[in-house]
Amino acid sequence: MAEYTLQTEPPLAGTEMEIAGVRLWAPADLALVSLALPLGGEGDALAAIKGAYGADLPEIGRSVVAGDGTRLIRLAPDLAFALFTHATPDAERVVAERLKGAVYTTDQTDVWVALVLSGGNTRRALERICPIDLHPDVFGVGHAARTVMEHLGVLILRTGDDDYLLLSASSSAKSFLHAVEVSLRNIA
Questions:
Q1: Where are the alpha helices (DSSP H) in 60-111?
Q2: pLDDT at residue 6 above 90?
Q3: Chain-wide mean pLDDT for the chain?
């Protein structure tokens, strides 16, 4: 009988291309852990996050990069994400240990797929498929928003002047990549 070994692989592993002066790639080894602040324990949770990451949880719709490179993304009064590079499947445990039980944590790594876009035409391509105002005066560096792109739910983050991180459901990863790639080709 043949022996099989299963190996995990992100749905868009190896994706990297340049179109219309925009570099598009799927980053490897990203971990995403949700942080839920317990009712009545918000103060302790915020203090634990500050102690663990050396950064305050940003206001809703914003993100901040902590000293260790972890990006804290605030989604609601009691909900945030910790996004960081982590190659092994124990990201939730790592975050939970840092926060010492003051925050409810859930591993979201396999639920989401990430695309990074970088280059001078990035905003122009995203504006074709994203209904929110991405003008720098409105959606600045560090901003984050939930939106829809081509009927797919997306969390969009502006990480630099011409840099964006997009997160969408891993179950529709190929459709998500296709939507972004077609938008880039349409501005080329």
A1: 91-99
A2: no
A3: 96
56 and 48 in contact (C-beta within 8 Å)? no
| Beta strand ranges found along the chain (DSSP E) | 16-19, 22-25, 30-36, 63-65, 71-76, 79-85, 104-107, 112-118, 144-149, 152-160, 163-169
Mean pLDDT within 134-144: 98
3-class state of residue 101 by DSSP = coil
Q: What percent of the chain has pLDDT over 90?
A: 91
- pTM (whole model) above 0.85: yes
> What does the H/E/C string look like for 125-145?
HHHCCCCCCCCCCCCCCCEEE
